[in-house]
Amino acid sequence: MNPSNAEPQPHHDDRFVEVTEVGTRDGLQIEPVVIPAARKIGLINDMIAAGIGSIEVTSFVSPKAVPQLADAEEVIDGITRAPHTRLLALVPNLRAAERAVETSLDGAVLVCSASNTHNRKNLNRSVDETLAGVPSVVARLAEGNRRERRIDVIGAVATAFGCPFEGDIAVDDVLKIARAYVEAGASQVTLSDTTGMATPANIRTLVRAVRAALPGTPLALHLHNTRGVGLANVLVGLEEGIRRFDSSVGGLGGCPFAAGATGNICTEDLLFLLEGSGYETGVDLEAAIAVAHKMEKLLGKRLVGQVMRAGPRLRLHDAGTVATAAG
């Protein structure tokens, strides 16, 4: 499926795909039902037990802006790690970095929208003002590490594939932000489809443009399924050599500061697609499905995930429980 002119992203194993679970951050931030910290910790521990190694667990955003995530420190401190665990959190500004360095966080996700309008809604500042603050945030994360293992910096470009306020986003606007992240010391750039405006065509175009501008920089995709093409976009990302994808338990998610935003691509559906396409994730699909059902019960509503309903492809059923058509 790889086009002959594609440039695969380097990886120690081209069949391994890293799935970063963002359900307790991006998934819950828009939910009106506040989940207690102990319940969040239990969910995250179940994710870790299922084999999910990379988890964006929370955000150090203002508690007034997103009350659901006011318990960031408590949640991080309560998690039971496995050897493979990598805990991430959104760190949108210097104040957030001050909080982050006092925890056992492994990675900080910085965010800046390629759209000025969305960036002002999301961060209450312009793109240029946000980028001007990136070096100080990165420096604070580096200075404040309490552990030998440093806090990695991931630069996320929001609305990279389109903005509900401004429409199409110029590639150069995305590159400006991506370059600023790399120059400040980010170890990875994530291209984020904040409101599900990505298509297979603009996924391919933007990934190639960023890779050409920043060769050797690991890229990831943060995709939403707002218009039903989230997994189609994953397939194109795979063709282009992307081996890191964000997803959310049960398909939860959405940005509270963007019109029409709905859920992320669903973790269980993504795992099913990857494994059925010959990729390895290290995650137990049945265990991930159990986490989705647990989240559904906590929120008291039906989630949109499909594999959590149908189960793995070869989950068999007793034929005696199904009616037989009349003669």
**Helix and strand element order:** EHHEHEHEHHEHEHEHEHHH
CATH topology: the name is TIM Barrel
- CATH architectural label: Alpha-Beta Barrel
Query: So what's the CATH class?
Result: Alpha Beta
Secondary structure tally, helices: 12
User: CATH superfamily name?
Assistant: Aldolase class I
Report how far apart the termini are: 46 Å
Percent of residues in β-strands: 5-15%
Number of beta-strand segments:
8
Poorly predicted regions: 1-11
Mean pLDDT: 91
Please tell me about this protein's structure.
With 327 residues, this protein is of the alpha/beta class. The chain has a single domain, classed as TIM Barrel (Alpha-Beta Barrel), CATH 3.20.20. It is 38% helix and 13% strand. The protein has helices spanning 23-27, 37-49, 72-78, 94-100, 116-123, 127-143, 171-184, 200-213, 230-239, 267-276, 285-299, 307-310, and strands spanning 18-21, 54-59, 86-90, 107-113, 152-158, 188-192, 219-222, 244-247. Helix 2 packs antiparallel against helix 11 (285-299) and helix 8 runs parallel beside helix 9. The radius of gyration is 19 Å and the shape is globular.
Features:
38% helix, eight-stranded parallel barrel, TIM Barrel, 8 strands
